[in-house]
Amino acid sequence: VVPSALDKVLLKELCVIARRCYERGWSFGTAGNFSLRSTQPDLFWQSPTGLCKGELNPDLFLPIRISTGHLASSERCRPSGEMPVHLGVFRAVESARSVVHCHPPGVVRWSKNPAPPVFHGDEMQKHLGCHSHKEELAVPNLVNPTPEEMANFAPQVAEHVKPKVPLIVLAGHGVYAWGKTPMEALSYIEALEVLCATQ
Ligand SMILES: [Zn+2]
User: Fold this and answer.
1) Helix axes 5-23, 182-197, angle to 10 degrees
2) What number is the average pLDDT over the span 10-16?
3) Fewer CB within 10 A of the terminal residue: the chain, N end or C end?
4) What confidence tens digit (pLDDT) does each residue in 27-47 have?
5) How far is the CA of 76 from the centre of ligand 1 (A)?
6) Residues 6+ apart with CB under 8 A from 92
């Protein structure tokens, strides 16, 4: 299984976005994970576990079957342990082309509130599916799974995704956003970080 020509272009963009997350301090250590739906059916590319996300390259991404969640070929590396979240998004949102995950501090702080507030009255809500700042924006905030629970977490993710809101949060952990390109996905994370930091 090899990336198509368009896959390669978008995987390069995804590596640029991953480096941007790292340089901002949103994926220090080996945190953060990144994925891209292939132009080939039933396939997406997932970042590997463990590496510094400031130094990814397209050859490191691993092919995963959307139907099974299994590797589509034998590989030397393992996919990110958080791959099931990406899998849940790709199953639930047909238009999701790329999923970006990192740990922005404002979002993490907001998510640890026992009852994280809905957003209201903020211009930036318009970047996250609201028609105006007068609407309320409720971002899904799921209990962070243990590593054991994470292995079977894809159905829960698919269940909580909202049609108009292009991201979900895991409490005390971080945010996953999706879009037609990696750049678009990151822009949703930026909007949420601004919303959380200005509450
Ligand atoms: Zn994470």
Assistant:
1) 20
2) 98
3) C
4) 988 889 999 999 999 999 999
5) 22
6) 157, 158, 159, 161
Q: Which pLDDT band holds residue 75 (cuts at 50, 70, 90)?
A: confident
Q: Which of 172, 170, 191 is nearest to 86 (CA)?
A: 170
Structure tokens at 54: 């400031």
Question: What distance in angstroms lies between residue 160's CA and the mean position of ligand 1's atoms?
Answer: 18
Ligand 1 centroid–CA 48 distance in Å is 13
Asked whether the whole model's pTM tops 0.85, one would answer yes
Can you tell me the distance from the alpha carbon of 72 to that of 142, in angstroms, rounded to the nearest whole number? 29
**CA dihedral of 45, 158, 91, 67, whole degrees rounded to 10:** 90
| Percentage of residues of the chain with pLDDT beyond 70 | 100
Q: What are phi and psi of 175, to 5 degrees?
A: -130, 145
